[in-house]
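tool_call: predict_structure(chain=1)
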Amino acid sequence: MPYTLLLLMFVLSIGFAAKDLFISKYLYLTNMKNIYERNVSVSHAILLEMEGGMLTSKQLKGNYGEILTHSEMVNQDEIRLEVTFKRDEELFLPTTVVYNRETKHIISWE
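tool_result:
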């Protein structure tokens, strides 16, 4: 009887540890998926704005969320583009990109 109780406690403790490990891995993967979706959405919006080449403010709705863009001239060759991502009423910090209007090369990305 004592060995059975000891074995039961051992199996239960391993089961609870496995459950906690599974939940933490699931939460990590869900968080990483959300981060990658945000990065893809912001990168796509930046590429669209660079291809368009006009100074505008736009609001785009995508599969993963809503994107607000605002562009302005820094000097004759450079444009600053500010991209804000919003999902499920959660607003993320804006991403600021400065790129060359002629060559379409990104100078800085913050």
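agent: The chain has a mean pLDDT of 89. Proceeding to next step.
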